[in-house]
Each structure stands twice: as structure tokens, then as C-alpha cells.
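>> Question from a student workshop board

For tomorrow's exercise we were told to take the sequence and the ligand below, predict the bound structure, and bring the output to class. My setup keeps failing. Could a helper post the expected result so I can at least see what it should look like? The ligand is magnesium ion.
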Amino acid sequence: MALNVLLVDDSATMRSMISRVLQMTGLPLGEIHQAANGREGLDMLGKHWIDIVLLDINMPVMSGLEMLDEMRRNPNHADMPVIVVSTEGSEKRIDELREQGVKFIRKPFTPESLRDVVNSIVGVHNEESNENEWRD
Ligand SMILES: [Mg+2]
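>> Workshop helper replied:
Here is what the output should look like for this input. Compare the format with yours to find the bug.
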């Protein structure tokens, strides 16, 4: 099973960093699509088959929370797994996201923590050998 991922973040540097970290996780990746804000992210959801969305909160044009609201209102995207990747520090905000079934990773993060969160959603179990690949 190859995972098609959508990275939504206004920082191109952060998108390429997350993309690199994803490759280090040993997860079976398919296509990695990118968008610079929530509006572009919604456009990408309409154009491509996406299995999981990694979503920044603070972005111009349309924030991650606004994009999430739009997704939840659209039956095609309402149940899509979303991981919010943000520097957002408010526990209240994070709890609100968790109540919506959204996973949360605080920037900066390690490949291991990203892999564990993705695995907890998609239920992919890696061989022990994969675990060591990015550590060596
Ligand atoms: Mg941002």
C-alpha cells in the first residue's frame, strides 16, 4: 500500500523538510503533493487521490483550521486522516483538534515521532530493520 500524502504549509522550506523526514520514516510512500495554503490544499484534494494530509495552521489566504472546517463539511473529505503539524502551543487549541479526531505534531519533530503518528493512523507496521535505517 502506497500512501499519497498532501503537505500543506506556507513555508516551502518546511514542506521540503517534512517531505525528507517522510522519506526517512520507511513508510510506503506514493505521491507527495504540496500546497502553500488551505485554499490550494482544497484544490489538491479535488485533483488527486490523497490518503493523509499534513497540515500547518498558520498560513495566509486560508489557514489550516479553515481548511479543516471545509474538509469536514465535504462528504468526500470529511473522514480523511489529518495530522496538524504546527508550532501552535495552546493546549486548549490542541485539545479542540484532538476532539475533532485530528492528530497533532509540534514543530520541530523527529522522523520517529512523525512515523509513529502516521502509523497510528494508517496502521502500517514496519520491519525492525526499517527502524534502524534512518538512525544509522
Ligand atoms: Mg505557517
